[in-house]
From TrEMBL:
Lineage: Eukaryota, Metazoa, Chordata, Craniata, Vertebrata
Domain of life from the UniProt record: Eukaryota
Protein name: Voltage-dependent calcium channel subunit alpha-2/delta-3
CDD domains: PDC2_MCP_like (cd12912), vWA_VGCC_like (cd01463)
GO molecular function, one term: metal ion binding
Source organism (scientific name): Bison bison bison (North American plains bison)
Keyword vocabulary terms for this entry: Calcium, Calcium channel, Calcium transport, Disulfide bond, Glycoprotein, Ion channel, Ion transport, Membrane, Metal-binding, Signal, Transmembrane, Transmembrane helix, Transport, Voltage-gated channel
Predominant cellular place of this UniProt entry's protein: membrane
Amino acid sequence: MIEIKFSDLSREPGGTLRILNYVTPPLEPPPAVRSAVWVKLWASAFGGEIKSIAAKYSGSQLLQKKYKEYEKDVAIEEIDGLQLVKKLAKNMEEMFHKKSEAVRRLVEAAEEAHLKHEFDADLQYEYFNAVLINERDKDGNFLELGKEFILAPNDHFNNLPVNISLSDVQVPTNMYNKDPAIVNGVYWSESLNKVFVDNFDRDPSLIWQYFGSAKGFFRQYPGIKWEPDENGVIAFDCRNRKWYIQAATSPKDVVILVDVSGSMKGLRMTIAKQTVSSILDTLGDDDFFNIIAYNEELHYVEPCLNGTLVQADRTNKEHFREHLDKLFAKGIGMLDIALNEAFNILSDFNHTGQGSICSQAIMLITDGAVDTYDTIFAKYNWPDRKVRIFTYLIGREAAFADNLKWMACANKGFFTQISTLADVQENVMEYLHVLSRPKVIDQEHDVVWTEAYIDSTLADDQGPVLMTTVAMPVFSKQNETRSKGILLGVVGTDVPVKELLKTIPKYKLGIHGYAFAITNNGYILTHPELRPLYEEGKKRRKPNYSSVDLSEVEWEDRDDVLRNAMVNRKTGKFSMEVKKTVDKGKRVLVMTNDYYYTDIKGTPFSLGVALSRGHGKYFFRGNVTIEEGLHDLEHPDVSLADEWSYCNTDLHPEHRHLSQLEAIKLYLKGKEPLLQCDKELIQEVLFDAVVSAPIEAYWTSLALNKSENSDKGVEVAFLGTRTGLSRINLFVGAEQLTNQDFLKAGDKENIFNADHFPLWYRRAAEQIPGSFVYSIPFSTGTVNKSNVVTASTSIQLLDERKSPVVAAVGIQMKLEFFQRKFWTASRQCASLDGKCSISCDDETVNCYLIDNNGFILVSEDYTQTGDFFGEVEGAVMNKLLTMGSFKRITLYDYQAMCRANKESSDGAHGLLDPYNAFLAAVKWIMTELVLFLVEFNLCSWWHSDMTAKAQKLKQTLEPCDTEYPAFVSERTIKETSGNIACEDCSKSFVIQQIPSSNLFMVVVDSSCLCESVAPITMAPIEIRYNESLKCERLKAQKIRRRPESCHGFHPEENARECGGAPNLKAKMVLILFPLLLMLFSR
């Protein structure tokens, strides 16, 4: 007998409730748990009926039988993972090579066109301006540079209106459309149109091709209309895009010195901060940097990084931007101390071997220098001048311009003066062209590939469409400019990541298998776990989506064995136990994966393939005739995975409109000889079509013979095979379906796609063969979701572990129908008199039906449907964990977004572009005015809320790391019961597995609330790092591989092209004198 405490309520005089605790005598145990016999009876009754319904309407037994009939004609093979990954890498290498060859043809055409062109300062040329095309004035006439430009939607370009015969030109908002340099560049680059079109004819899978000019204009093919943002601005400048910077320059180590002496107060400081921010924009993942502010002392913007450099990834750059707000001006500037520190950092860091080991530069941002500091340069930098000095004079005064220009010219750098915020970006860009000189003189057209990024031509809620860009620099070939190393620009083309996925035979990777690729920095190019977007009202891009490290998704590899091997371009195998989440991260599958990896030659990428142990390592080949297969493919209910590549429909424009199923039919009938198809995959599709064909007649028979009262809650039957073939049958009219979205294109979780098999297929594969897995949408009872239950089971070829899972079948039924079956079963009893001693109808009993992950499918309180059981019955769930019936698995999300409170002040936050920086300057002026009013005690009239609003707390989402639990039932536990000792009572429960399912019936004593035990939630918890750990994480640098080429210096480089207006003649002696001294001292 189980002794259970109960609580009773009695009312004190005056209406106060008093709790009376007592213990019932052992002779009268509570009815809820007198015996587990009743619960077992109910579970058995419900399990038997619901499995009968699921098996009947899914046709699982018929399909299993049909595959068995073909068992003797099937050959089972173990997949050779290493051979597979090598073959895939070879296919990708060929695809990437085609793209880079298209870019190379653009380079040759551009350089030839420029060589033949003579600059004409008076050239008048009407070109197609991408912003002005098709625009008319109030009289109906086309605007200047806005001629008629024919545009038509094109499905190859995401149905955007484009002109596939011509390119057009975008000019940044802050540049003059008819500047002679731009007009001349647009004129000679017009010859690229022929090459754009020719490239597209040669490779119809190409998408955007373009030329980004060093003068700032951007020629894009196919031509497209550019629309300003909500502020009427197009801030795009091709020269600060990663593909441009990577192609134009070599990797670099940079120390940025910012003058914060008293003379930099006010607008100058705002301009200085904007200049620093613009420099950060030009740094990429292969670069390293630090920022030091100086007056009488040195102030590292991030004190943790004293004396070192950090990788210029997105996260680190944003971290430094936030710290820029803390800079303020005071004291006097001691530039000599700062220069000494900068040279020492660059030297020390270079010796560690961690940096770029290529170009080095010091960026000096100041309003003046009282000396040339030639002794410092003589000590650290002459005669080799390996560290370039770039000087930025802030403000309109030119008193110290000569000193700053001398420093730049004497150290192979560049001088520029920045008087206004509008000048910042254009002046910052100058240093890139200086760094490009050695590459231009070498005439090395290095091919560069970028990390993954989202296509900006589409709104985020339309994608995301991830791309990588292949780019090459374009050089001036004119003899008189050779020593100047003039970069004309960069050409490139975008390669959608989905193009990579098309080369991957998903059917050979198994149900849980996948392919992934990373960059030389370990960042993900493609991986099914990459989540670049988050939702906050609408879909938005995560700030750091392009720099997600492989270790952040394959986080079980704590020692980075897999990551480091791939970064180092090795070929090999690695195995580990993994915890893969499914169903929006709420469920977890624990399995062992074997990883195979190799490099993709000609690119900075490495490819990996993950195959799950067991059925995921085996593949089988069936054999039927083409005639048989074609006949069974003709059925209207047959469909194929749209994102799988059965046939390449991109090679010829006339094939683009074909679905994969249509393409296969034409290919098999011999009507399209130019179609290229995967013969092996199509053979297996034909086999699956033939074997699964009888189920159509079976489903039709069920529908015709279905009586009015029999199982009318079942609405859909479906199947999917390992080749991506699907069949579906409706038992109700399409308009009567409870879940209208199920198996539609938008229901990504439940259809075959490029990344994974359907959720119902993956979960069924991990169930015991012959059993069904049941699931419902989360929080069904509280959110307006489709109130349905999905049941599915796997079909195996052989009755052994090595047998591949060849298919999965299932049904979808109304939740109300499913729950009614449960409550009917729970009212059964085995007493001879028909009177049950306990029932789920009893007030002292709560009955639940939960799944193997602890989610509620049935509860007396309907609003709890879809909730996690631990949130409703925390004490019981805690006991189940203690007893081993369930186990908790801790998961980590290193791509999470957390809500953070940030103080917004009148500082210069939002330094990301000149327009925001201009607003910051206005704020500064207003602040100065307020301070003036305060000083003279004249602000009593000022609204009291103004200062409060200036410091208000803003809630924003920012990248963070979180941990959260998932729960899995122990398969060996069939039934158990227990008591929970609470403060004033004892709570008892019984849990019983539902046969042939992933479900459990739980009967709980409801008379003991046990409120002292907190609910168990699955809410993620942010991992907060203390300052010491934050510092260690900043300093930590994972293994990376440097780009193979470096063009840091060239002896023929002409360093006299080093800056703007200030007169250098008076300083030439100063340049030569220290050099002569050094020569004579040797």
